[in-house]
């Protein structure tokens, strides 16, 4: 497929989409775009996360609920193996086809370079791939599993601020809550993410994730343990919101499996040889975050906190100018502050 029908490529070979990013159309009264938005909302990513959640619940968790009433090492290890295996297959297949075999070359690729071409001292063993892989499987996924075990312990022991709901009595609210899961994710992620961008938290914690300026699938969960804890703790909102374990686990899975979306590095993945069938990655907003750091703390604007707080970057030239003006103003402010703190002798 000709990616230049959809975007432009600069001298360095970096590709950018023609169309700027749009926040969810209902915020701007663009009702004509709602049909497209609703289809995109479900298909394919959220339906995938729901299918994975139902498989976790039906095949693994519900038949063995009693095992989660106390801390059980064997079941914790089983959950870890399932989580790690699921991520290995999902992230790994994008990595294998698009980064190792490079089946579509650099078509639709934002950054023309592949991480393996850039060894750097900031990474363990000088390799972004190895560093990101090890941090995911030995830091972030174990933490995800422990939070999952804590959550299941709360559920099986009846711990909830207002009591657990079941689908027979509360199906309408639970259906609404299921639809709100991506919105809860965006608000939670924006808040923790903005927080760890402030110093000294950035230096201590979040810089680990940002070492990958040119992210790839393994970068998705490459985090300092404090960030991984805050990231996966999102499910714990369901101990306060009237909820049900299936909705809560959907929240957890869309966070964990969904982390790949921002880090795919390609606008579209070609699914067949000719590229007639493609999959939209929804990666651009977070790609811009990795490129410019202080923009797009949230997601794609389902709850457009970035727009409201002035940190939204839609990929356009105007947004670029706005961002630069904001950075300049920040620098000036810092300079003025420093000048005040150190008066001339
Ligand atoms: Zn990221
Ligand atoms: Zn960040």
TrEMBL record:
Keyword list (alphabetical) reads: Membrane, Transmembrane, Transmembrane helix
Q: What is its main location?
A: membrane
Q: Which cellular component terms (GO) are annotated to the entry?
A: membrane
Task: State the signal peptide span.
Answer: none
What domain of life does the native source organism fall in? Answer: Bacteria
Question: Which PANTHER family does the entry link to?
Answer: STEROL DESATURASE
For this entry, the protein name equals: Fatty acid hydroxylase superfamily protein
